[in-house]
Amino acid sequence: MPSRPDARPRTAIPILAAFAAGVLLTLVALHYGHTSARIVPAPSLSTVAPASSSALAAAAEGSADEDIADAWPEDAPTPEQVFTAQPEAMQRALGALAPRTPGKTNIYAIAFGGDGAEDVFRNEAEYVDTLMTTRFGSPGHTLVLENNPATLAKRPLASWTNLEAALDGIARVMDPSQDVLLLYLATHGGNDHSLLVDMDPIPLDQLDPDGLADILAKRPFRWKVVVVNACYSGGYVPKLRGQGTLVLASARTDRTSFGCGADSDITYFGRAWLADGLNATPDFIEAFGKARTAIDGWEKRDALLPSEPQIDIGAGIQDKLEAWRKEASIGPAAPFRAPD
Q: Which CATH fold would you assign to the domain 13-327?
């Protein structure tokens, strides 16, 4: 039976409302001459701002439902078929994981693309697999969970239940006391620090800092890198920090981050840390420093309120990652390309 915190978020409305408010504010700013946030090579602008009324929440919910209904592929399994197929989908995904290489530190990754309404989160989740295979010499060491109309029959959904199953399954393949777990989550975030987990009309519970911390605390992973790429994601740092853990967040606890949206292929943080930073250096911490500098420059250029990405380096994890890099077969850069 999957573990659950007492107060599990069960609705996506607050996050969708916040996203809708951000879009409205962005459109107003652009109409009255606000500088566009579209820069090269950074992705296009999208912000999340706090919702201000129940009417906005209802409008956001209705808009999201219409968008997802329109996006559901006619040749895909029905929502009920997708929902009931998840145990089998997880079994296939876990069965495809490659065994660890004995005698050295291995790295395994779980990539979680939470919002099915925008391809940008799917793109980043799948790119984690590309980096792990090509850049870090670890093929078959990534499990991708994603909500996207194009992959309903191909990959397990990004859901609370599947995340727990993925962690349990990957713990049986790797050595949790010796190897490193990379958990990368990308989606919209609300100012209450909940993460949007959405593939309408399939009912999915939302993630929050307490819930994610509880999920990880109940698993045996000694060495972890947890990356939360979402607005207000700094709210996860206090709950996830600890010995043997590196926590990265794309924004301060009270700030939005940028680069999501229907017209974007990759977020600012995804571009700066995943695509640019980790291709420049395999050092996760050094790549974060490069990413923070790049993001700061993009935001200053476009007169945006700085997102101020956050980092917390737990005792021992920096040395562990250095030991992994010395033993790893670091490959050439793996340029980011959005899936067709």
A: Rossmann fold (3.40.50)
Q: How far apart are CA 26 and CA 236, in angstroms?
A: 26
Helix 160-173 crosses helix 86-95 at what angle (to 10 degrees)?
A: 30
Beta strands in the chain (DSSP E): 107-113, 142-146, 180-186, 223-229, 245-249, 310-313
Instruction: Tell me how long the chain is.
Output: 340
CA distance readout (Å), 192 to 59, 176, 199, 221, 256 = 19, 31, 21, 27, 12
Q: What is the pLDDT of residues 236-272, one digit of tens each?
A: 999 999 999 999 999 999 999 999 998 899 999 999 9
Q: Which residues of 121-156 are buried (b: 16+ CB within 10 A; e: fewer)?
A: bbbbbbbbbbbbbbbbebeebbbbbbbbbbbbeebb
How do the residues of the chain divide into helix, strand and coil, expressed in percent and rounded to 5?
45, 10, 45
* Residue 198 · residue 146 · CB < 8 Å: no
Beta bridge partners of 142: 109
Across the chain, mean pLDDT equals 85
Residue 67 confidence (pLDDT) = 52
pTM over 0.85: no
Q: Enumerate the domain spans of the chain.
A: 13-327
Write out pLDDT tens, residues 188-217: 999 999 999 999 999 999 999 999 999 999
Specify burial of residue 96 (Cβ count, 10 A radius: 0-12, 13-18, 19+).
Answer: exposed
Q: Are 112 and 125 in contact (CB under 8 A)?
A: yes
Q: Where are the alpha helices (DSSP H) in 72-208?
A: 79-84, 86-95, 119-130, 160-173
